[in-house]
Structure formats: C-alpha cells, structure tokens
Amino acid sequence: MNLMTLNFRNLLIAVAVLSFVTVSLFAHGNLITTVVLVRHAEKTDDGRDPLLSPEGKQRAVLLARVLGEQRVAAIFATPFHRTRDTAAPIAELAGLEVIEIEPNESHAADLAARIAKQHMGETVVVVGHSNTVPAIIEALGVAEPPTIDHDGYDDLFVVIIGGDESRLIHLKYGESSQHADSLHEMSQDR
Predict the structure, then answer these.
(1) Total count of domains within the chain
(2) Dihedral angle of Cα 43, 172, 35, 23, to the nearest 10 degrees
(3) What CATH number did the domain enclosing 118 receive?
(4) In angstroms, rounded to a whole number, what is the distance separating the alpha carbons of residues 154 and 3?
(5) Sheet of strand 165-172, all strands in order from the earlier edge strand to the far edge
(6) Dihedral sign, CA of 38, 175, 61, 41?
(7) Residues with Cβ < 8 Å from 10, sequence gap 6 or more?
(8) Which residues on neighbouring strands pair with residue 33, listed in sequence order?
(9) What's the number of CA atoms in the CB half-sphere (13 Å) around residue 126?
(10) Which domain range does residue 24 map to?
C-alpha cells in the first residue's frame, strides 16, 4: 500500500466525519456553508508568479478528483498562475469560472463577508497562499487558525459554518509535501 492510497483512505474517513458534523449541525436547524481551502500546489520556483511544477499539476488534478462529487458553487483564487492553475481542474469539472480575489489587507474579511452574503448554504473552494489561507480561515470564524509550512502543499482545510459556529477540519491530500521534498533531495544526490 503506497502513501497515496493511505492519504486517500484517510481523506475518505475524514469525509465521513465531515458528513457527520454537517448532519449534526443541520439537525439543529442551521443552514450549512462549507468552505474548502488549500494552498496552491507545488510551484516551479520562488519567483513572483511561477507556474505549477509537474508535481503541482498532478496535485491540482487530484484536488479536482477529491472534490469532484461536491456541488461547488464558487471557486476563489488570487490572481497568480500558481493559484489559478491549482483551481483550474476543479473549475473545469464544476463548469465554473475562477473568481479572482486580490490579496490585500482586507481580503480575508472581504472574502468571508462575500461568502456569507452570496454563498450561504453552499460549498465554495478557496485557493490561496501559506500566509493568506490562515487569515481567511480566521475571518471565517475559526479562533485558532493553523499555520502552513513554507514547503507544505498537502493541507486541505474545511471550514463548516452553521449559524454562529465555525468548525475546522484539517485534512491531507496527495503525496506528503515532506515525502516529495525527500524524494527530490534523493534525486539531487544521484
């Protein structure tokens, strides 16, 4: 059994838990909004606007596969190649355009308000960066947002909003970022 199979199995278990939490909140009469947040997939370099690496392209396709059965109402991403390209496969699958959000001082609060106003009771996807995703999670009502490692690309966050309550589920998808880095380092040693 490889790491990808284990991560996918863990993701299926997490989806079952997510379903239970959603049903639990819904049973109490709340309209549920689900926000799926990821950092962009692996990039080719550390430049201002790099493209996705081959590994990043694979991760973006996997994200679409993981979220493919969800009824995604909107997809938000910052206006950079790496975020738009991470969002592209899920947008294509859902038949949606990626909505660009400018990463400025108020972007997290603005996006949270927009989701609450325009997408209550729906599922939306947000593709951001290691510094913007935690800020958006906090703006969505999670008191202690996670941090994302600079080299972490395998985090998938789900914020479930029901009434005045927000719950965060932290999942992993695809190859472990640390595993990919180790493989890259091993190939460089040869």
Answers:
(1) 1
(2) 170
(3) 3.40.50.1240
(4) 12
(5) 98-100, 72-77, 123-128, 32-39, 155-162, 165-172
(6) positive
(7) 171, 172
(8) 161
(9) 28
(10) 3-189
What torsion, rounded to 10 degrees, do the Cα atoms 132, 40, 90, 59 define?
-150
SS3 32: strand
Separation between Cα atoms, residue 61 and residue 151, nearest integer Å: 19
In tens, the pLDDT along 5-16 reads 445 555 555 555
> What pLDDT band is residue 163 in, cutting at 50, 70 and 90?
confident
pLDDT reported for residue 15: 54
The end-to-end CA distance of the chain, in Å, is 26
Q: Are strands 123-128 and 72-77 parallel, antiparallel or unpaired?
A: parallel
SS3 of 168, please?
Answer: strand
Single pTM value for the model:
0.82
Burial of 51 (0-12, 13-18, 19+ CB in 10 A): middle
**pLDDT tens, position by position, 37-90:** 999 999 999 999 999 999 999 999 999 999 988 999 999 999 999 999 999 999
Identify which of 34, 42, 100 has the alpha carbon closest to the alpha carbon of residue 67. 34
* DSSP track, 64-98: HHHHTTS-EEEEEE-SSHHHHHHHHHHHHHHT-PE
